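Bumping my old thread because nobody answered last time. Still need a sequence for this structure:
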């Protein structure tokens, strides 16, 4: 073989247009996740614009998850844990209120877990809520305003263990419960919501004979810090959206091969 017969070797890699598009789509999705996650993490949660340059309140749930409660009148050795104020339905917002902005009303529930001395039970109290918010200017990219929990009330009666278990709270009951909300505009018509209430509330109970708390009763007043969190459906939708992309991407890659 002469030197003229020696040619450099070349390797040609061919990737179809459809495969390139699939890879590009993967990259776009990955980039979107990388960009979006820090924004979601920095905000308490994200809520959609209501079409007027702001959001409807209340947005999301209030959470005091894992707050240790004291409950005067129970025997020593029985700790009480609260998953406090979950849910957000039958909502309405109207002009007015003590902060000269809007009034919000909604239904929720309040979980109390009692655990100790061989007793374990979680009781759920339906709770009616009312709050007030100071004025805000729709359309401003940052809207920061005071809020106040006006009323929180709910009870159960005729329970096998409790003749009465009641919770009341908020400034209408003589228990100041200030709060604050900051809305920050995000791309896509959404708002980052940073919200809290420092709610003071009272729990009253009367034990039902002949149960474990028969003859016992008590009243406890406590303050606790409650933060705004996304409604469970928000996380479900985000999760389903992410999971739903996977089979589509796998199918596109298979077709591109």
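Sorry it took so long. Here it is:
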């Amino acid at each position: 073989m002469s030197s003229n017969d020696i040619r450099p070797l070349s390797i040609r890699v061919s990737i179809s247009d459809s495969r390139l598009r699939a890879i590009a789509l993967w990259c776009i999705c990955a980039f979107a996740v990388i960009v979006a996650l820090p924004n979601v993490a920095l905000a308490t949660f994200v809520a959609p614009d209501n079409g007027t340059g702001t959001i409807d309140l209340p947005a999301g749930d209030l959470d005091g998850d894992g707050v240790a409660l004291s409950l005067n009148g129970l025997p020593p050795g029985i700790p009480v844990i609260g998953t406090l104020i979950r849910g957000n339905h039958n909502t309405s917002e109207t002009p007015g209120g003590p902060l000269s902005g809007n009034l919000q009303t909604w239904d929720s529930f309040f979980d109390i877990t009692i655990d100790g001395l061989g007793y374990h039970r979680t009781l759920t109290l339906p709770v009616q809520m009312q709050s007030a918010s100071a004025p805000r200017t729709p359309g401003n990219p940052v809207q920061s305003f005071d809020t106040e929990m006006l009323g929180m009330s709910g009870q159960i009666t005729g329970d096998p263990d409790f003749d009465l278990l009641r919770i009341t709270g908020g400034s209408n009951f003589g228990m100041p419960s200030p709060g604050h909300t900051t809305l920050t505009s995000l791309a896509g018509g959404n708002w980052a919501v940073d919200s809290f209430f420092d709610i003071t509330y009272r729990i009253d109970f009367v034990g039902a004979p002949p149960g474990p708390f028969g003859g016992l009763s008590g009243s406890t007043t406590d303050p606790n810090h409650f933060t705004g969190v996304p409604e469970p459906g928000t996380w479900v939708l985000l999760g389903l959206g992410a999971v739903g992309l996977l089979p589509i991407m796998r199918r596109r890659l298979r077709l591109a091969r």
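The longest helix spans residues 17-42. Let me know if any region looks off to you.
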